[in-house]
Design goal:
6 strands; mainly alpha; 3 domains; three-stranded antiparallel beta sheet; 9 helices; elongated
Amino acid sequence: MRDHWESNYKKLKKFRANMGHCNVPTNDPKFHKLGQWVSSLRYKNKIGELSKERIKALSDLDFIWSAADLAWNKMYDQLVAYVKKNGTTNVHERSGENGKLARWIHSQRHRYKSGKMTAERYKRLEDIGFCWIVRGVEEEVEVPEVKKSEVVEVPVFEDDKTLEKLYSLRVGKYIQYNGQGEIPAELVAFVEVHNGEFPPHIPLPKGPVKFMLGSSFYKQNEVVWSGVGPLPENVLKYVEEEGVLPSYGMRIEKFPEE
């Protein structure tokens, strides 16, 4: 498992050197395994199953630990770009091209006024000359916060509405759900405990596909999955042990008949 950590850490370090950040996309086939590993690290840290040594190693790379921080940074970067272009942090229009940014700025003023803003975020906004008061009067707050659906974006390979997913309830414990029908009880319990937030998930490919199990090419065992229904037991066991899907080949056009 340590070799697995060190290998992925080196890949993440290289990714950061090239991209300038650790926000690895999971919807890019080139990086989807690394992106899934990054998501699992956030979850392990959240439930206290990540060592101080590894937390420090990741923090040294300016690792972002939550989806909320990721979303905030994304909007902050948009504001920085707006300031460079327009020389002000005041974005008045609530619709159109800058509508989402205007609502986010509105939300930051409200969070500061209500004492819900962290010192680190306050400082970052101050550093770019953020205007906390508009026309000498504090803004009336119409919307207390940007809706969660607007800021928490879960990247997927394809259509999120029909894609099968493996939700990570805790380290080594996954539950599969495709968003259709009754939500599994264990998933409901997790959402209730975590203030309505779903756990990190691994998006599954639309099948049928062949998963490649084994430590080397000549020992690999091809396991076919139809793309719907439970994953094969040996594939799920691999995920529980490694935290990522095994490699899989190109989609096959037709699922083999029994």
